[in-house]
Automatic annotation (TrEMBL):
Pfam family, one: Mem_trans
Membrane topology annotation: Multi-pass membrane protein
Protein name listed in UniProt: Receptor protein
Record organism: Gluconobacter roseus NBRC 3990
Gene Ontology CC terms, in alphabetical order: membrane
Chain segments annotated as transmembrane: 6-29, 41-61, 67-92, 104-127, 133-153, 189-210, 216-235, 242-266, 272-293, 305-323
Compartment(s) where it occurs, according to its Swiss-Prot or TrEMBL record: Membrane
A Gene Ontology BP annotation from the UniProt entry: transmembrane transport
Stored PANTHER family: AUXIN EFFLUX CARRIER FAMILY PROTEIN, SLR1864 PROTEIN
Keyword terms: Cell membrane, Membrane, Receptor, Transmembrane, Transmembrane helix, Transport
Length: 326
């Protein structure tokens, strides 16, 4: 038990800044210094510039052998985010008979961790530059798989497309999916980390004098994103409900617990176990609130998931940090 004070300090240093920064955003919205539209501008800054630069600098600063050894981490994260999305969507549609748009949004809320916003300050604090690899993998899974499929299903549910016949509808859906994938690939948050992973695998590295230039803006990622999330939270009156409780529990506890169990069963190295479990222990992404507001689906519930999920993560992530020895 001699390491207990150091462990507690690490947990507080990793998680408390999240709640403090969210609180500043919430307070700024309360004072009417920022509104939801201005929070959207901050989010756009993060997704188009700050986060890609942060990932580029971090990946190119990661030793090549660590990147090449990230296969088990990638497998577990993809299994949780892509496989979990499909399973939860099927349960919500086939068993619980949820509407198409609701099922898609809930599935993404449950299986999509807030890696761009919370992953940077938390995983970066614990793992250093090596955290860029699981963050990039999770970001790619969200932007290349979860987000395009969710957008298509929510748009389909809202009836935005004209349906003529089954065959033509299937072609339209395939065309729309391809269009969303192409759009996602043009986003800097997608192609920049992909390019960086290819470069570092080929032996490239980032000169020290360039790293500071990229990180000057890149280091604003976590703070700006969390501040914007706090502003968004104030614009929606959050309320706890059984649905919110179930989503938060599955997102924050059950999924990382499953990943931990699988990593133990597969006898993965400790660093791979820690990175994959803590990545999937991150609470739900704020992009889900934006989707809920855009399509007017479960707006209050998804905002409440963001609030209560982030608030409870100081305990749930602390538990998984302790459990994995990170």
């Amino acid at each position: 038990m001699t390491n207990s004070p150091a462990l507690l300090l690490t947990i507080v240093q990793s998680i408390l800044p999240i709640l403090v920064t969210l609180g500043f955003g919430y307070f700024a919205a309360f004072r009417k210094d920022f509104d939801a539209q201005q929070a959207g501008v901050l989010t756009r800054l993060v997704m188009l510039y700050a986060l890609p630069l942060e990932l580029l600098a971090s990946i190119l600063s990661t030793p090549r052998n660590e990147v090449l050894a990230a296969g088990p981490v990638a497998a577990l994260i993809l299994l949780a985010m892509v496989g979990g999305y499909g399973i939860i969507f099927a349960i919500l549609r086939g068993v619980l008979n949820r509407r198409l748009g609701e099922a898609a949004l809930i599935a993404m809320t449950i299986t999509g961790p807030s890696v761009p916003f919370i992953g940077i300050p938390v995983l970066g604090q614990i793992f250093g530059p090596a955290s860029s690899v699981p963050i990039s993998i999770a970001s790619l899974a969200m932007n290349l798989v979860q987000l395009p499929i969710t957008l298509i299903l929510m748009g389909h549910d809202r009836g935005t497309r004209h349906r003529v016949e089954t065959e033509g509808e299937a072609r339209n859906e395939l065309r729309e999916l391809f269009g969303h994938l192409m759009h996602s690939c043009r986003e800097p948050v997608v192609w920049v980390p992909m390019m960086a992973l290819v470069l570092v695998s080929a032996g490239a590295f980032l000169p020290q004098f360039l790293k500071g230039s990229l990180l000057l803006l890149g280091r604003t990622t976590g703070g700006a994103a969390l501040f914007a999330s706090g502003v968004v939270l104030f614009t929606r009156q959050v309320k706890f409900s059984p649905l919110v409780g179930v989503i938060v529990t599955v997102r924050n506890v059950i999924i990382p617990a499953i990943i931990y169990t699988l990593a133990r069963l597969w006898h993965l190295p400790l660093p791979a176990l820690q990175e994959s479990v803590l990545t999937m222990a991150i609470p739900s992404a704020s992009i889900n609130v934006i989707l809920a507001m855009r399509y007017h689906v479960l707006e209050r519930e998804i905002a409440s998931v963001l609030f209560f999920g982030t608030l409870s993560s100081i305990f749930t992530m602390a538990f998984f940090i302790w459990l994995t020895g990170a």
